[in-house]
Hints:
This protein has helices at 2-12, 35-57, 59-89, 94-118, 124-150. The protein is mainly α.
Amino acid sequence: MEFQKQRAVEDEDDDRPLPDLPPLPADPRWRVAHLPFLTIVSFALILCAASAGFFAGGTTSALGAALGVVIVTISYTMSTLIIAWADTVRPALLMPLALFTYVLKYSVLGVVLAYGVESEWQGKDALGWGIVAGVIVWTAVQAWWFHKLSRPK
């Protein structure tokens, strides 16, 4: 008990300076500024994938291709939002939360694909192609966006 009282008195009289922390950006919205544009691109890709799936294999393939793009859109959006939140709240959380997010989403994707391979559903091939198309387009548009953002004016 005596130790706790002494410790409390020392804490009140502590004049040590606080550590220098990096300043937060003035406007943290830049971390998610690309999401509206990517959402529009995703809707266009969903329509294109559904159309290609319909012409290749009918309604089931159209649903599978569109669902593949939706899975990637949700996955990438979730990662972006979690990483942006962690960077805004506490940058030290960035790496653990990013790794947890990637492990979680790839585990879920692995379960979905493992179940899809075993199923007899006719749209599973289109689902795979929709996932591939979604990953390629999202990655390319994100790379283009940040390249455009980082160019000197």
